[in-house]
Design brief:
Elements lengths: L1 H12 L2 H34 L14 H23 L2 H4 L5 H13 L6 H19 L10 H8 L2 H25 L4 H30 L8 H27 L2 H24 L7 H23 L3 H21 L8 H8 L2
Helix pairs in contact: 2-3, 2-5, 5-11, 6-11, 6-12, 8-9, 9-10, 9-11, 11-12
Amino acid sequence: MASNDANSISYKGMSSDNIKGLVLALSSSFFIGASFIVKKKGLKKAGASGVRAGVGGYSYLYEPLWWTGMITMIVGEIANFAAYAFAPAILVTPLGALSIIISAVLAHIILRERLHIFGVLGCALCVVGSTTIVLHAPQEREIESVREVWDLATEPAFVFYAVLVIATVLILIFRYVPQYGQTHIWFYIGVCSLVGSLSVMSVKALGIALKLTLSGMNQLTYPQTWVFATVVIVCVLTQMNYLNKALDTFNTAVVSPIYYVMFTSLTIVASVIMFKDWDRQNPTQIVTELCGFVTILSGTFLLHKTKDMTDASHGSMAAARLAKHANEDGFGEEGIPLRRQESSRTP
């Protein structure tokens, strides 16, 4: 009898709604992964005829290819948002890691950006660590009004987190980004990820408001709904600006996984603080999530340290080939025949 109940539960888990959510999540990963490549192509094209985004230019706003990438990303985000309406988060969220693989593969094929084999291993560690955290994260609590989300967002713990994030972002933008943004990827991605953790909390509130409104309980009359909408707009514009700077300055195959890791990690932290997820978990689940964080840190470190190894190895191989041809032709580094050099040394 218990076996039949278990089969019934597993069958319900693969309902038509779950299948729709799965398809939407996979589609979202493809669109978002591809959008990184299309946007960078647009940034490169715009930078060739104007001021690059990495140094403060906005010529990409006049580039149709960049807008194509932006629309592709919006389609992916809409698909991801819709997936949560059909399937549980434990099914949808881990699939976001597929956008890293898609982005890296397309960057290799289209942008000719090579990733060292250890970079591939680092990317895999990032995906494994993030997936471990998400798969062991608790289910979201049932919320019946946007005012409940507002009450959670105005509790002291999350207010402290929000103030800390805003202060950190302002310090990064006005102090560190102008000096180190062009040489250290962490500052651009840090701004995107920190701001993104707040935007996701607001997006959740809007999603709840929209779902309840469509079910007959209008949430658009509450001022809290519009406050969350304003936060989303400000955060998304900030993320877009600094993500463009990161894509224009650094290798896409590096930007994508680091952004995913930092964004996912900070979003989980924000969710734990706001929704008190760990209060409903046992120690084993919490330890497993911490192990996932360690795996993420290891993968990110490995990926960051090996991002230039491919270029260095290709450069050394090219130098070796030039030296080989020079020896075969009988010429030295300065174009002087080797035989003449040898004869000049002979008294």
